[in-house]
Amino acid sequence: MEGLWLEGRIGFLFLGFGALTVSWLLYLYPALVNYQLATLGITSFAWFLALWWPLKVFLYKGKSKANSNHDSFNLIGNQVVVIGTPIKPDVIGQVTWSGTTMNAKLATSEKSQIEVGDTLYILDVKGNVLICTTKMRNHHEQSL
Fold it and tell me: How far is it, in rounded angstroms, from Cα 74 to Cα 135?
């Protein structure tokens, strides 16, 4: 939870560390006063390089790539409704879920066209495309 607060403000962290470093450098080397802006950019970038990997590990600990798709979306098993035009096998169409229009494609097991207004169930998420089926499956079947 503490990591969520940092995500949108992470650039200010590096800029703040850079500003503190510049003030310390100006105290030690007053001749740098003519190069304050360049020094700020260089020191902020140096802090970014030094802290990027540790912060990435801190913010995303416990989120493996194998299950990050299912954890972050939590859409698997939910119902969607076909909108716009019918969805044909191997063709991307559109569905609505919780008031949001999303791209959807039928699972390879689906062979027939799905009409507008029909309900589908989400099997997987591939990028920005929902993989859907007409049959609701339990959690055990989805993981196979």
Answer: 18
- What was the pLDDT predicted at 62? 60
Q: What are phi and psi of 127, to 5 degrees?
A: 65, -120
Residues 95, 34 share a domain: no
Of the candidates 60, 70, 125, 129, the one whose C-alpha atom is nearest the C-alpha of residue 94 is 129
From the number of C-beta atoms within 10 Å of its C-beta (0-12, 13-18, 19+), residue 71 rates as exposed
pLDDT at 59: 73
The CA distance from 118 to 37, in Å, is 59
Residue among 32, 122, 46, 36 at smallest CA distance from 77: 122
Q: Last residue of a domain, which of 61, 81, 100?
A: 61
Q: Does the reported pTM lie above 0.90?
A: no
Averaged pLDDT, groups of 10, the chain, 144 residues long: 54 91 95 92 94 82 54 73 89 88 89 89 87 74 46
- Side-chain half-sphere CA neighbours of 144 within 13 A: 5
Range of the domain at 91: 68-143
